[in-house]
Amino acid sequence: MEIRTEEGWKERMACRLCCKEADLPFKYLGIPVGGNHRKLALWKPLLESFKKKLASWKGQNLSLRGRITLLNSMLSSLLVYLMSAFKIPKGTIHSLDKIRRNILWGGLGEEKKIKWVSWERVCRKKECGGLGVKDLRKFNLGLMGKWWGRLVKGEEGLWGKVIRGKYGGNGGQWMDWVRDGRRVGSLWWRDLQSLNVGEDGNEGWLTEGFRMKIGEGKGVSFWWDEWCGENCLANIYPRLYVLSTGKEKDCQQMGEDHNGTWKWNMTWRRALFQWEEEAEKELQKTIEKVKISPGCADRWEWIHSADGQYSTTTAYAVLAKQRKEDDEEKIFKRVWNPTIPTKVAAFNWRVLMDRIPTRSNLFKRGIIKEVEERKCALCMGEEEDSSHLFLNCSVAKWLWKACTKWWGVKIVLQKECWPTFQHLGAWTKKTYKKEGWDCIWNAMLWTVWMARNKKIFDNAEVNLIKLFDLIQLRSFTWIKARKPKCYFHLSDWLINPTSCLDKA
Ligand SMILES: [Zn+2]
Predict the structure, then answer these.
(1) Where is the Reverse transcriptase zinc-binding domain (predicted)?
(2) Ligand 1 centre from 407 Cα, in Å?
């Protein structure tokens, strides 16, 4: 608190109150108090500590899964604490994401890395085609929403009393604060009121997420609160509202309890016309479904969790919800099948979007300059893009032929990776066989890519038989690791893979 007084007064008061004299802003339980939290400067120490933490990971050879875990777990301590107290400025989120993006693509230091997939996609859930990395702004909103969760429950303690004392607000009035976002009061309070705006088109996520579970109906506006259904009655029956003699009444005042049965009691300014009577009947039908129980408190419930309590996890799920194509969801589920090692699955994920460093992609990004250098490392014939490398190259063609002969199946290879993967298991109706064949796809991709890299970096010759052996061995190892109890040997696998899967 800044107090303008005569010299020495502050010191004397501090002494009398047994506290320390200090300047603003100061830290309380690690949270900066008294500063303007919308200013980037206030967040600088946080960024520094974030960077410092990362430095301790420098030089570690982390797998992609390790890096994703690191990205999400770094949010666990101080940052989460601060994000649940304040809305972080855009600039700070931008700086944090810049560091996080670099980590994801393999850099823990200052060096620049190619970001192969857009950050927006990376932050999507896995079944929506992303990697499940947390979106900081949405996470921030979800955490801040907790304050509303406490406020509507009326269990907020002293701070809530201060808020109510200053801004009013009993019953459902908090909903108006959120709904029209009047943005009055302190910076913090204004941020809290703006949460409902959301991010990326999920405006109204808070007001739509809380629903009144009616008890005795005291303080719940009959006409204006959404206590039966998704809209308030004044909006559904505007004519009846105009004619009602109880415009200001709460639910409790609109009826009576007769020996345990609730009777609604509506009165009108004049006799209703026939069409108005029909509307009244409809209204009666709607409200009869709701039981008013005297002595039972009304409460707000968070509709996204089973117990009606607000939680950050459910809020984040609402905020991060993406429109997804059913078909796509199925495909991405297959991509992240736990039988496939994560690094291989992630590689497949990138292949399906053509986001791997093929020579064609390196040329597009200006890393390879010569047109000639775009040629496939394995056959030195055509341009090396993912569909060539894994489907149309002579090496890939030979391997696919060997695999289909080994399994005794016929498959149609499309020109591109995505549709090929999409229709990969079409030869069978059995899910476990489809999954087995997905393993072959992944083993193929990984084996060809490794061979390609060895040829480029170690000048190693390509031996087709050896590559085929590797595909067989890799798929065997993955399936055995997932199902250790199923009884078949490598020799069985090499002779008849489908009958091995029948046993599994
Ligand atoms: Zn080739």
Answers:
(1) 310-400
(2) 24
Examine the fold and report which residue of 125, 157, 178 is the final residue of a domain before the chain moves on.
125
Q: Is residue 222 domain-shared with residue 340, that is, in the same domain?
A: no
- CB within 8 A of 304, min separation 6: which ones? 209, 314, 315, 317, 318
Do 499 and 371 share a structural domain? Answer: yes
pTM of the predicted model as reported, rounded to 2 decimal places: 0.76
- Residues 280-283: contacts with CB under 8 Å, at least 24 apart: 280/240, 282/237, 283/233, 283/236, 283/237, 283/240
**pLDDT at residue 2 greater than cutoff 70:** no
Q: In this structure, is residue 132 part of a structural domain?
A: no
Distance 157 CA to ligand 1 centre (A): 68
Q: Is there a domain that residue 489 lies in?
A: yes
Residues 261 and 113 in one domain: no
Contact partners, residue 267, CB within 8 Å, separation at least 6:
244, 245, 246
288-293 contacts, C-beta under 8 A, 24 or more apart: 288/264, 289/228, 290/214, 290/227, 290/228, 291/262, 292/214, 292/215, 292/216, 292/217, 292/251, 292/252, 292/255, 292/257, 292/262, 293/215, 293/216, 293/262
Residue 427 neighbours by CB under 8 Å, 6+ apart: 409, 410, 411, 437
Over residues 70-81, the pLDDT tens digits come to 787 766 566 788
Could you give phi then psi for residue 302, rounded to 5 degrees?
-90, 115
Question: What is the total count of domains within the chain?
Answer: 5
Residues 307, 356 within the same domain: no
For ion ligand 1, residues whose CB falls within 5 Å: 376, 378-379, 393
Structure confidence by residue, pLDDT tens digits, 109-165 = 556 678 889 998 899 888 888 998 989 999 999 999 998 888 877 766 787 777 777
CB-based contact 148:174 (threshold 8 Å): yes
| CA atoms of 349 and 364, how far apart (whole Å) | 20
Q: Are residues 335 and 475 in the same domain?
A: yes
Last residue of a domain, one of 286, 319, 352: 319
Do 196 and 313 share a structural domain? yes
Inside any domain, residue 133: no
At 430 the three-state DSSP class reads coil
444 CA distance to ligand 1 centroid (A)?
14
Question: Is the domain of 460 the same as that of 377?
Answer: yes
Q: Which domain holds residue 270?
A: 215-297
CB 135 within 8 A of CB 123: yes
Measure the CA–CA gap between 180 and 183, rounded to whole angstroms.
Answer: 9
Same domain, 314 and 351: no
Q: Which two tokens stand for residue 93?
A: 């989120």
Question: Average per-residue pLDDT in the chain?
Answer: 85
- Pick the closest to residue 171 from 216, 136, 110, 204 (CA basis): 216
362 assigned to some structural domain: yes
Distance 386 CA to ligand 1 centre (A): 10
